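Amino Acid Chain and Its Fold in Token Form
===========================================
Scope: a single protein chain, as residues and as a discrete description of its fold.
Amino acid sequence: labelled as such and written in the usual single-letter residue code.
Position: the record begins directly beneath this header, with no further notes in between.
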Amino acid sequence: MQEILHTFRPDLFSGRHALVVGATSGIGLDIARGFAGLGARVTATGSSAGKIAGLDEEGISFERLDVRDADAVRAFCAAQTRVDVLINAAGVARGEEEWQEEVFLDTIDVNLNAQMRFSFALHDRLAETRGSIVNIASMLSFLADPGVPAYCASKTGVLGLTRACAHRWGREGIRVNAIAPGYHKTDMTKPIWSRPKGEAAISKRTALGRWGTTEDLVGAALYLCSPAAAYITGICLEVDGGFATGNPLE
């Protein structure tokens, strides 16, 4: 992480408030650490009281919040007096269960509707600071996996939401972009990388020859919210080590 942070000015986000939704583990937590490491005041949300109780991170305050609870999200957002950065990182994948309608709809609610809820509810705060939104998409925003239909649908929807919000709010100074992770070693992907054959298959297709880490996504988030990206909005930055462009037939 320190090597990544040393790429940027150490006070880059000093005086700014970054809200990272879905940040008690994995991708969201490391992105929250990245912003805190560059001087931001960070608020991180998660749905698990147990995970929150076990976290003690300098510069980061954790709050329990169910992103599916529209009233709770609106109340939480209304209580924020300043927001410069919104990272929508909450996400779930439930495998074959997603072919059941109830599970499909709940997955959509977490992965897509929650990003809409936070973005809409924090619009005014972000307009005041001419802030940035980064939505977490996926390589499955572009590719298909029949094992996770709701995940595919929701992450494809994230791209549409990102582009629409970018054009709706661009003249107010709000930039809206997305990051599409590839195969990164997280709890969600553990069933694959914990098996030697699964890990090897992904590494073989990936141009860089390895799985990603959660830290590999931090620099992209920091960059997209920095002045260096002042003329970038409505894009999806793929951070997949070249997986999507690999040859699946090799």
Observations:
- The chain is about 40% helix and 15% strand.
- Residues 2-186+214-239 form a domain with the Rossmann fold fold (CATH 3.40.50.720).
- The mean pLDDT is 95.
